Amino acid sequence: METTAHRVIRMLKKRGVLAQDAYDDFAQEQPLLAGMTSASIIGLVSIGERAGQRVRRILQDPAEGVKTGHLCFASRGFSLHAARQIAAGNKHGLENLCNYVARPPLAAGSLQRISDEKYSFKLKTLWSDGTTHLILSPDELIEKLAALVPPPRQNLLRYHGVLAPHSKMRLAVVPKKPDTKELEKTRGKSKNRLLWAALLARTFNLQVEVCSCGGKMRMVAAITDGISIKKYLDEVGLPSEPPVPEPARPPPQEEFDYYFEGA
Fold first, then answer.
1. Three-class SS state of 241
2. Quick check: helix, strand or coil at residue 26?
3. CA 209 to CA 197: how far, in whole Å?
4. Structural element, H or E, at residue 111
5. 3-state secondary structure 120-165
6. Which residues contact 95 (CB under 8 A, 6 or more apart)?
7. What's the CA gap between 34 and 53, in Å, rounded?
8. Do 119 and 138 touch, CB atoms closer than 8 A?
9. CB-side exposure of 246: number of CA atoms within 13 Å?
10. Which end of the chain is less crowded, N or C, counting CB atoms within 10 A of the terminal residue's CB?
């Protein structure tokens, strides 16, 4: 990680990306959001009475080294997590990984209200300098959350390895484009959209148009009338009433309720 961080920073400086006079489209178009993002990365506050100051922290004894877990390392702002392994064809494991990547920015129970002007955010893991909690004001908390919002119309996903655009092995793992004639059969109303049956077959290998007897199924009718749908489901032995929704879960902590007074 130290080698990677050193080489990446050196390459960015060589290409002028980190130069002080480099033009930044995002900073010019969205100066407030860009300032929040920049301050959040370096641990500063960009708005309010404490603008330009470091985020208040609760520290323990500094931890030695940069190892954050099993096969997990961090260096100069770069982190590597190599402990997660998913076997080929393990869709359940892949789903769990996607749920982890798409997790919300704040975990339940991590944020505690100290007073009207202070909130304590507990870190999941101890930082290398011993930081365990961050002390934020309400404005600082909203600022840090706003910095997590991706800028509009910008692709934040980058591929590497076999999925990289110029990888020699990309064709071996990326599905090939179907033939033009076959593609015309699977298109929906738009030429850029595929039918659900084609998407299910391509993604999950579910042939919804193939009958259990081996023949090909076709659509006979699309029933949209509520009475007809209920009559059909009752005759074939399927539930015709929608499931009863579970009651809304109360917030885990009542102190998360915000009250605003005045205009």
1. coil
2. helix
3. 7
4. strand 111-115
5. EEECCCCCCCCEEEEEECHHHHHHHHHHCCCCCCCCCCCCCHHHCC
6. none
7. 17
8. yes
9. 3
10. C
Q: What are the tokens at 22?
A: 């480099």
CB 70, CB 81: distance < 8 Å: no
Q: CA-to-CA distance for 68 and 88, rounded, in angstroms?
A: 27
Residue 44, helix vs strand vs coil: strand
Biggest distance spanned by C-alpha atoms of the chain: 73
C-alpha torsion sign, points 223, 229, 232, 236: positive
Q: Which helix (H) or strand (E) holds 141?
A: helix 138-147
Q: How many other CB atoms are there within 10 angstroms of residue 45's CB atom? A: 22
**In whole angstroms, what is the distance from residue 33 CA to residue 46 CA?**
10
Integer Cα distance of 18 and 10 in angstroms? 9
Q: Mean pLDDT in runs of 10 for the chain (263 residues)?
A: 84 75 66 83 85 77 63 77 83 83 72 88 82 89 83 71 82 71 64 75 81 80 85 88 77 52 46
Give the whole-angstrom CA distance, residue 142 versus residue 258: 12
8 A C-beta contact, residue 232 and residue 224: no
Q: Are 78 and 1 in contact (CB under 8 A)?
A: yes
